[in-house]
Amino acid sequence: MQKILFVISDGIPDRPIRELGNKTPLEVAKTPNLDRIAVDGISGMMHTVDIGVRPGSDTAHLSLFGYDPHDCYTGRGPYECAGIGMQVNAGDVAFRANAGTVDEQGIVTDRRAGRIESTRDVIDALGKITISGVEFDLQPSLAHRIGLVIRGKNLSPNISDQDPHKTDVPVHTVKPLDHTPEAKFTADVMNQFTKLTVEKLSNSPFNRKRKESGKLPANIVLFRGAGSIPHDLLSFKDKYNLRAAFIAGGPMYRGIAKILGMTVAEFAPSDGVTGLPNSNLDAKVRRALELLPDYDIIFVHFKAADSLAEDGNFRGKIEFIEKIDRAIKPLAERNDFITVITADHTTACGLKTHTADPVPVTIKGEGVRTDDINAYTERECAKGRLGTIRGQNLMPILIDLMGLAELYGA
Ligand code: ZN
Fold first, then answer.
1. Which domains does the chain have, with CATH numbers?
2. What CA–CA distance (Å, rounded) separates 359 from 55?
3. Fewest CB within 10 A of the end CB: N or C in the chain?
4. In sequence order, which residues have a C-beta less than 8 Å from that of residue 50 and are 6 or more positions away?
5. Å from CA of 299 to ligand 1 middle
6. Phi and psi of 127, rounded to 5°?
7. What is the pLDDT of residue 259?
8. 226 Cα: distance to centroid of ligand 1 (angstroms)
9. What is the 95 CA–ligand 1 centroid distance (Å)?
């Protein structure tokens, strides 16, 4: 059985950029290794979630793994929380949260509490919280960020955000988004939680100290992205009977892989795997090749092209694409496994956000058909013989290339 090394370059595709002579960063970047993989393989385009859908990174990754996000995605919270090592069980509701600042009138004056370095004091000051039988689990994440998971009976993720996503406006009252008693109950509990956090935090000693040293108090927990994991979600192993490993720096990506039961590679700080433009991509590829004997499929995620595009930094994006190209050189040279090169979505530098444009995909390996495509770009791959597929088609295609697909019919 051939194994698979699957590279996901977050947001690497783009739209034509006037300053680049109406070319995309992928077209301008010098990428001999990506292009060699395109020469040796078969290429096409892929709508990761569906035609005309602007994918989030979370829904796009679920689709690439062969899951329909309409069935298993309700919000980003569970993936963020699992990514920082929190336990998220089916039936729990999980949120992305921030330590923020509100004034006496409940107006949000800072969504990051003056860029607080750690939320450990905030969480300690809140102590153990139970409201109407619902238990609250809070864990610090990076800087002002907090993972929040609630556990109890009759909870629903179908509630609105309390975080207004901007300052100088009041914090939002959480509302049920359907007519179920569960959504109403959960919204009520979360509104009580908001009140409680402000009461407990406003008078806490650590906030008095922050005020004395001229810092903004961290006196509210702002939350958004409520989500839960469906009871019938199959693990990747149960779905495909494949041993999967996932290599990424970002918590949300790691959380998706953890929830699907994949092995998530750990790195020491000295490895320099940061998810930023300075990330050590060679260390990721090296780890992938080391893990290959023990796994059937290994996903490697490169983040920064997306973040650079969201800053509109197309020159930085070109540089990062060239860095990816250098890192994947061993994949261009080796033919003892199947290589997949693709992205989770397009991130357009001009719009500084994700778009619904399909992404290029190339598959190369022993026995894989080839075509006449000689560059891994949006324009070239669109002419490839793989045609245009959906994200959820990719895993079945790979299962077939691995020789594992069951015959449909007789
Ligand atoms: Zn993404």
1. 4-73+232-401 (3.40.720.10), 80-227 (no CATH)
2. 11
3. C
4. 390
5. 14
6. 65, -160
7. 95
8. 19
9. 19
